[in-house]
Amino acid sequence: MERDVIFNVTLKRFLEPVGEYLDDDRVSEIMINGVDEVYIERQGMIEKTDACFADDEKLLAAARNIAQYTNKRITPLTARFDSRLPDGSRVHVVMPRCSRKGLCISIRKFRRVNFSLEELVEFESLTPEAKEYIELIVALQQNLLISGGTGSGKTSLLNAISGKIPESERVIVIEDSSELQLQQPHVLSFETAWPDRHGQGAVSIRDLFHSALRMRPDRIIIGECRGGEALDLIQAMTSGHGGSMSTLHANTPLDALNRLETMALMSAVEIPLIALRSQIVSAIDVLIQINRLSDGRRIVTEISEVAGLSTENRYQVNQIFGRVESAFGNSKNSTIKLSWSGRQSVFGDHLKLLGLENGARLTGKIFLPVEK
After folding, report:
1. What domains can be seen in the chain, in order of their start residue?
2. pLDDT score of 137 more than 80
3. pLDDT tens for residues 3-51?
4. How confident is the model at residue 331 (pLDDT cuts 50, 70, 90)?
């Protein structure tokens, strides 16, 4: 705690040019593009500010201090790194050797208060029906994958959904930089580690995943899938670890499955493509797509269930909820509503088996057992 206080004081001094935005709860991201160009995202909209740093040395000093907080060092060979601030804000730095605009820093600010699913309904990011569906899917321990673009709200949505995990379960969270804030009493949070100055001691997400599997988790949550660890996640989901969750960058649920496949192929394990696809459709149960609109709103645009492979061995999804847009002359007056597609969930039998069908007040029709 004392260490955090010391770093808070020094970082505020080094980051003084953007200090007002660090203290402004309406600002969600600060983007420093070299010494004299600073943008912020405030209430969902990006705007340029008048903030600037005195010179390159001042900005480099700020980057060094940020790196030091997570025990990282900037050397002549450093190209980029992830870090965080004492309050949990996520930081990514790209060094001048890779950036034509000089040293660039992006600060994704830590939310002191997380949104709940109930609040997302109030903000019209979800409908009550979709919220109830998600709650039931979590209760049924189905595996979830949240996809969306950069800044679309994937982590906030994952935080909100994880709030529905029963307190009796043991949850292990794995991240590059700690960002998720689970409120359950039995949570282990693991974070990757960089190598020391001699190149020793690096710990990857894959390493942490292997440790997690040996520590009796009820659920495993990976903050974001980015590489070969996707194969470990897929194999864990197909070996009894139901209710696991993760996020990745993709524009549609089908894109999410294809991207997960690509990342799994990045692992050192050689696996036939058809076998990999079969594992993916067995592992992932539900796909939730979230998008950021041009007006800054972040909304869930689709909820789909994985429906296996086609005869051509291509992924198939069963859309349960989708967005319907209604425009009234001017696009500014358009409204977007998340609506039930009319299709039934394949988990109706699961709901009945666990005796949860009576609690499906809004989604009773969705979870009717599918006629065979």
Report:
1. 2-108 (3.30.450.90), 117-359 (3.40.50.300)
2. yes
3. 667 777 888 899 999 999 999 989 999 999 999 999 999 988 999 999 9
4. very low
CB distance 279 to 235 below 8 Å: yes
Residue 167, number of CB atoms within 10 A of its CB: 9
User: pTM to 2 decimals?
Assistant: 0.84
Q: In this prediction, what percent of the chain has a pLDDT beyond 70?
A: 93
- Chain position carrying tokens 């970082």: 11
- State residue 238's pLDDT score: 84
Which residue carries 């390159």 as its tokens? 56
